[in-house]
Design a protein that fits this description.
Elements lengths: L1 E4 L2 E9 L2 E8 L7 E3 L3 E9 L1 E6 L2 E6 L3 E4 L5 E4 L6 E9 L8 E4 L6
Antiparallel strand pairs: 1-2, 2-3, 3-10, 4-11, 5-8, 5-10, 6-7, 6-9
């Protein structure tokens, strides 16, 4: 089931002990909040589009077929500067995957 967010949507593809896998879509011109997680690490694998990914305040461009690892407690964000949606797979590993493990430092949609 898709979960709508102000930046796009996500769908949980798999969830079990030690992992959670989501397919995430970020719409054109939107970005995720600048955030970190205390209980999980993430691996992002780009499926389509081109994104600007911020890891510890350093930007890098990612396109289809590329990936990035985000350790626990690391500040991160994804922005879609293009005209087409960005789609990526997020693989979470750790011991807790609740949405309340998101510590937002900046958010375009007032969700602090």
């Amino acid at each position: 089931m898709k979960e709508q967010r102000p930046w796009g949507d996500y769908e949980v593809l798999s969830e079990g002990p030690g992992h959670k896998v989501k397919r995430i879509v970020v719409e054109s011109g939107k970005r995720l909040s600048l955030q970190r997680h205390g209980n999980r690490a993430e691996h992002w694998y780009m499926l389509s589009g081109e994104a600007i990914v911020t890891i510890d305040r350093e930007d890098q461009r990612l396109k289809s077929g590329q990936s990035v690892d985000i350790p626990r407690e690391t500040l991160h964000r994804m922005k879609n500067p293009g005209k087409e949606p960005v789609m990526f797979i997020e693989i979470q590993t750790g011991d807790y995957f609740g949405e309340d493990d998101i510590e937002r430092l900046e958010d375009d949609f007032g969700r602090m």
